[in-house]
Each structure stands twice: as structure tokens, then as C-alpha cells.
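User: Just a sanity check before I run the rest of the batch. Below are the C-alpha cells for the first item. I only need the designed sequence back.
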């Protein structure tokens, strides 16, 4: 199954994992210690984040460290930006209408 960044950030646990890993590199157990869900559930979330390219797991000795790759979120930023511009234009037009109505009073 092909996953994308939007699917990855749709889940609050995965967003929390990304926030955690943005602050520091952690082992899989280190990530799991920060959540009330099971270790296998955390592993599944990490797997999805890896498939989307948001997390890489780096073996180092006997440990496996998770690191975040935030540059993959640019896809989300680009998508949101188009709607931000659209709403900004609409609010600007609304401001103009409200100013015009105020002057007519």
C-alpha cells in the first residue's frame, strides 16, 4: 500500500511521535516510553512514518535510533498554502465590502 504524508499526519499519535523526534533522536524504546499505547502500536506508527519518509531508523550497535525528516512535510505546507492564499483573498474582499458599508452609513 502506498502511503503519503497526509496519511501519516492524520493520526494524533504519529503527530506526537514527530513532535517528540523533532526535539531529539530516540531509540524505538525511547519513543515508546513517552506513550500510553503498546510498544507494538508505537512500532506500527513508526513503520508508517518510515513508509512516508518522515522518519528514518538508523541502526547503531544493538540499538535502532529514530530520526525525523521534516523536509517531507513541505508537501503539506504547499497544499495548505494554496488555501491560505484563497482565504486571504476572500477576507480582503470582505474587508472592502465592510469598509464600503461603513462609509455608506
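Assistant: Here's the designed sequence for the first item:
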Amino acid at each position: 500500500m502506498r502511503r503519503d504524508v497526509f496519511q501519516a499526519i492524520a493520526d494524533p499519535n504519529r503527530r506526537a511521535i514527530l513532535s517528540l523526534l523533532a526535539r531529539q533522536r530516540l531509540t524505538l524504546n525511547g519513543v515508546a516510553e513517552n506513550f500510553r499505547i503498546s510498544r507494538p502500536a508505537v512500532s506500527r506508527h513508526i513503520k508508517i512514518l518510515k513508509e512516508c519518509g518522515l522518519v528514518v531508523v538508523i541502526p547503531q550497535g544493538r540499538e535502532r535510533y529514530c530520526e525525523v525528516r521534516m523536509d517531507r512535510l513541505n508537501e503539506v505546507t504547499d497544499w495548505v498554502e494554496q488555501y491560505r492564499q484563497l482565504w486571504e483573498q476572500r477576507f480582503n474582499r470582505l474587508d472592502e465590502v465592510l469598509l464600503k458599508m461603513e462609509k455608506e452609513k
